[in-house]
C-alpha cells in the first residue's frame, strides 16, 4: 500500500509523523511524496488557531480531490471537532490524540515491535516533510491553563517520556545519519515534573549530551517560567544549538494576567539578559498574540515598546482568534477584527526589521551550516542548497557538489529573499546523500 503522510502545526506533530513513517515502512508499506500516488493518507491536524484549523480542512479536501480511497484524520481537529472531521468527504477514520500513538498498528491490525524499527529508524518522510533533522517527542500534554489556548483540551494533561525512551530515539537518529535532533513537546520545559521522583529538562539534556554523539542537539519552544539562569550553563557544550524560542505572548503585564501567563515582562527580560550573558551569539525568538480581548491602545503600545527594547532575532506574530472552549472566548471587550489585523501588521513589520538587524550582524562572518534541502539549479553540475546555522540563521547557496545533510563552514555574504546568501568555504571529504 502506498501511504502519504502530512501534518500541520507544531514540531510535535512532525515528530509523530516521523514515527508513523517508521512504522508503516516496517510493516512493508511504501511512503510516497504526493497524495495523488497514495492509497492511504494520514493527516496530523492542528486547531490551535483558526488559520491552522482552516489549513487542516484544506489538507483533507486536497486529499479527497486527489482521489485517495482512505483518509485518516488525527491530531487536534480529530479531538476538538471529531464530528466535523468525520463528515468531511473521503474521511474513513478519525483518531483522537489520546489514541494516536497506536494509530499505525490499530489501522493495520498488527503488532509493531519498536526494536524491529532500528534498521530503518528516522527514514526521511518523502515530499515536503523530508528533513535532515529528527524531531524527538519528549513529552505531550500541558498542565497550564492559558486562557486563549485549546492545547490542554486537545492534548490533555502533561506526561513525560522516560529518559531511556528519549535517549533511544536520539541514538537511532544518529545511527541513521541525522545531523541534528530537535527535542519537542507541547510543554517541553515541564519534562520530568510528573515522574515519581521529579526531574528537570536540564537533567535530560545533560544525559543526552553525555550518552549520544549526535552533532547537534536543539531545544524547541520553552515556557519562560520553567527556566532559571543556571539552565543556560548547559550551552558550554557547543553541540547544543544557540537558539531559544521563549513564548512571551504580550509585553503588557495586564494582558499577561488576563492570559493567565505565569510570567511578567520584568521576569522575562531578566531571563533573556541571563541567556545572552551565558550564550554568545544566541538567537532569541518569541511568540506574540495581538488583539487579545480587552487589549487597549496603551497595552498594545506597551507590547510594542517591550518588543523593541528586547531586540529579538525574530517574532512569530499571531492575530488573536477565539477558540471554542477557552476562557478568552467569553471575555468582554473583544477587539474588532480590523484593529487586530492592523496591530498584527505593525508588529510583524517590527519583527521583520529585528530579524534583518540580527542577520546583518553576521555578514562577512564564517558559520557552520547544515544543508537541509537540495535541488538541481538548472546549470550542469550545480545544486541549489538551503540550510540552517545552529542559531537558526537561514542560509542559501549554490554548490558544485551535492552536500545535502552535510555541515560545512560557510561565509555569509549578503541578504537575499528573506535569508542569507552563503559561500561554502570547504567541502566535506566524503559526500553522502543517503535519503535525498
- Which structural class is indicated by helix and strand composition? alpha/beta
Q: Which H/E pattern describes the elements? A: EHEEHEHHEHEEHEHEHEEHHEHEHEEEEE
Unreliable stretches covering 5 or more consecutive residues: 115-122
Overall outline? globular
Please report the number of helical segments: 12
Say how many strands there are: 18
Helix content: 25-40%
What is the rounded distance between the termini? 22 Å
Biggest beta-sheet profile: 5 strands, parallel
Q: In order across it, which strands form the biggest sheet?
A: 2-1-3-4-5
Question: Mean pLDDT, as a whole number?
Answer: 91
Which features characterize this protein?
single chain, 436 residues, alpha/beta, five-stranded mixed barrel, 12 helices
Could you explain the architecture of this structure?
With 436 residues, this protein is an alpha/beta fold. It is 31% helix and 23% strand. The chain contains twelve helices and 18 strands. The chain has helices at residues 11-26, 50-65, 76-80, 82-87, 103-108, 151-155, 163-175, 201-211, 253-259, 265-278, 297-310, 337-360, and strands at residues 2-7, 30-31, 40-45, 70-75, 91-95, 133-137, 139-140, 159-160, 180-184, 216-219, 243-245, 283-290, 314-319, 366-376, 383-388, 394-399, 407-416, 419-424. The strands form five sheets. Strands 2-1-3-4-5 form a five-stranded parallel β-sheet, with helices on both faces. Strands 14-15-16-18-17 form a five-stranded mixed β-barrel. Helix 7 runs parallel beside helix 8 (201-211) and helix 11 (297-310) packs parallel to helix 12 (337-360). It is globular, with a radius of gyration of 22 Å.
Amino acid at each position: 500500500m502506498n501511504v502519504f503522510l502530512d501534518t500541520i502545526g507544531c514540531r510535535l506533530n512532525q515528530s509523530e509523523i516521523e514515527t508513523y513513517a517508521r512504522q508503516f515502512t516496517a510493516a512493508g508499506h511504501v511512503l510516497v511524496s504526493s497524495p495523488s500516488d497514495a492509497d492511504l493518507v494520514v493527516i496530523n491536524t492542528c486547531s490551535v488557531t483558526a488559520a491552522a484549523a482552516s489549513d487542516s480542512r484544506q489538507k483533507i479536501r486536497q486529499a479527497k480531490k486527489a482521489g485517495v480511497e482512505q483518509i485518516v484524520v488525527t491530531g487536534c481537529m480529530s479531538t476538538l471537532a471529531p464530528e466535523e472531521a468525520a463528515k468531511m468527504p473521503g474521511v474513513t477514520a478519525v483518531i483522537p490524540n489520546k489514541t494516536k500513538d497506536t494509530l499505525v498498528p490499530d489501522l493495520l491490525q498488527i503488532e509493531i515491535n519498536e526494536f524491529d524499527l532500528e534498521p530503518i529508524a528516522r527514514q526521511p518522510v518523502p515530499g515536503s516533510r523530508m528533513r535532515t533533522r529528527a524531531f524527538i517527542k519528549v513529552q505531550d500534554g500541558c498542565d497550564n491553563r492559558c486562557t486563549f489556548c485549546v492545547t490542554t483540551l486537545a492534548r490533555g494533561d502533561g506526561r513525560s517520556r522516560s529518559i531511556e525512551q528519549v535517549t533511544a530515539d536520539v541514538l537511532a537518529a544518529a545511527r541513521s545519519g541525522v545531523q541534528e535532533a530537535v527535542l519537542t513537546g507541547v510543554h517541553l520545559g515541564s519534562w520530568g515534573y510528573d515522574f515519581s521522583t521529579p526531574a528537570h529538562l536540564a537533567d535530560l539534556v545533560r544525559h543526552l549530551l553525555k550518552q549520544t554523539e549526535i552533532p547537534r542537539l536543539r531545544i524547541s519552544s520553552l515556557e519562560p517560567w520553567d527556566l532559571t539562569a543556571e539552565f543556560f550553563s548547559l550551552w558550554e557544550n557547543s553541540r547544543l544549538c544557540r537558539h531559544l524560542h521563549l513564548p512571551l505572548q504580550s509585553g503588557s503585564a495586564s494582558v499577561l494576567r488576563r492570559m493567565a501567563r505565569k510570567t511578567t515582562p520584568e521576569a522575562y527580560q531578566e531571563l533573556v539578559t541571563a541567556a545572552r550573558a551565558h550564550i554568545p551569539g544566541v538567537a532569541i525568538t518569541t511568540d506574540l498574540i495581538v488583539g487579545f480581548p480587552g487589549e487597549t491602545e496603551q497595552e498594545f503600545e506597551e507590547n510594542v515598546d517591550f518588543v523593541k527594547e528586547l531586540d529579538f532575532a525574530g517574532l512569530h506574530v499571531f492575530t488573536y482568534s477565539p477558540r471554542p472552549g477557552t476562557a478568552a472566548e467569553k471575555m468582554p471587550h473583544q477587539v474588532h477584527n480590523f484593529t487586530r489585523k492592523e496591530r498584527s501588521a505593525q508588529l510583524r513589520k517590527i519583527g521583520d526589521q529585528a530579524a534583518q538587524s540580527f542577520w546583518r550582524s553576521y555578514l562577512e562572518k564564517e558559520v557552520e551550516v547544515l544543508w537541509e534541502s537540495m535541488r538541481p539549479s538548472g546549470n550542469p553540475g550545480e545544486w541549489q542548497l538551503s540550510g540552517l546555522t545552529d542559531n537558526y540563521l537561514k542560509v542559501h547557496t549554490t554548490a558544485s557538489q551535492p552536500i545535502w545533510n552535510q555541515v560545512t563552514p560557510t561565509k555569509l555574504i549578503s541578504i537575499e529573499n528573506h535569508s542569507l546568501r552563503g559561500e561554502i568555504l570547504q567541502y566535506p571529504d566524503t559526500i553522502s546523500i543517503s535519503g535525498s
